[in-house]
Write a structure and sequence with these properties.
Elements: E1 2-3, H1 17-26, E2 28-29, E3 39-44, H2 48-62, E4 66-71, H3 73-81, E5 88-91, H4 95-102, E6 109-114, E7 117-121, H5 132-136, E8 143-145, H6 152-167, H7 171-178, E9 179-181, H8 184-187, H9 197-203, E10 209-213, H10 214-224, E11 229-232, E12 242-246
Parallel strand pairs: 3-4, 3-5, 8-9, 8-10
Antiparallel strand pairs: 1-2, 5-12, 6-12, 7-10, 7-11
Length: 247
């Protein structure tokens, strides 16, 4: 019903020709359908903005609607394993798509883009790229992280802790002990329109630092929290992320 084409390793940004190129490469219709059945697209939460835009562009160009669902990549994989239909699964890692391939639930997996990790903190925290590691290790800053296994950014965060620990003995254990695993119950109030868990917890002061995909920090969290401080990580502790597409 569809086919996957080899994809370039690109950084995807909504509204750019790169995003339109990704739409042309990944969402290619077969010769014809008896009727325009919806294309079912499951995606990582960090891809919500760009894939929503790509899906809309695809529908405009082909007339075929796209049904999208977004969430933690591990949970989206589990939904497919439980029998929910998905034509494409865009994960924030390669492991979840590879598992579907190994189990016979996908025909092909490709690496289609990369991301990076950033640290984010409310304005006035003193977070800069040169001070990123010092701020990360500051025990006075409650550190919010997403759950490993369920969400690849949690796995990448643990890789980051190991990389910091290799340079600063004892830091990995200290970071693991200090990390607060974010969940919906922590928010304790209804989310505002366009707000997500991390943004709400940062706004309410329940966490003072968060490990995020750089794309999410700049395109989503910065919109929720004016003055948000965002810092890239030094190259010697940079880890992942690699995004995989299964179909």
């Amino acid at each position: 019903r569809y086919r996957l084409l080899p994809a370039w390793h690109i950084s995807v940004r909504p509204g750019t020709w790169m995003g339109r190129l990704l739409a042309a490469l990944l969402l290619v219709p077969a010769a014809a359908w008896a009727q325009p059945e919806p294309l079912r697209l499951f995606g990582a939460g960090s891809l919500r903005e760009v894939l929503t835009e790509i899906a809309a562009a695809y529908t405009r160009e082909t007339g075929r609607p796209v049904q999208t669902a977004f969430g933690f990549s591990g949970l989206m994989r589990e939904r497919i394993e439980r029998g929910e239909g998905a034509d494409l699964f865009a994960s924030a890692d390669m492991g979840h798509p590879q598992r579907l391939l190994q189990d016979g639930r996908a025909r092909r997996v490709v690496l289609f883009t990369r991301n990076a990790l950033c640290l984010v903190a409310p304005g006035g925290t003193g977070l800069t790229e040169s001070a990123a590691v010092d701020r990360l290790m500051d025990p006075a800053l409650p550190l919010g992280v997403f759950p490993a296994v369920q969400d690849p950014v949690g796995d990448y965060t643990l890789e980051l802790f190991r990389a910091v620990g290799a340079q600063h003995p004892g830091a990995e254990a200290a970071l693991r002990a200090r990390a607060i695993v974010i969940n919906e119950a922590m928010v304790g109030r209804p989310l505002a329109q366009g707000e997500d868990w991390a943004g709400a917890l940062l706004r309410d002061g329940k966490v003072r630092m968060h490990v995020s995909y750089c794309s999410t920090a700049r395109s989503r969290l910065a919109q929720q929290l004016p003055g948000l401080e965002i810092a890239s990580l030094p190259g010697d502790i940079s880890v992942g992320p690699a995004y995989g597409l299964a179909g």
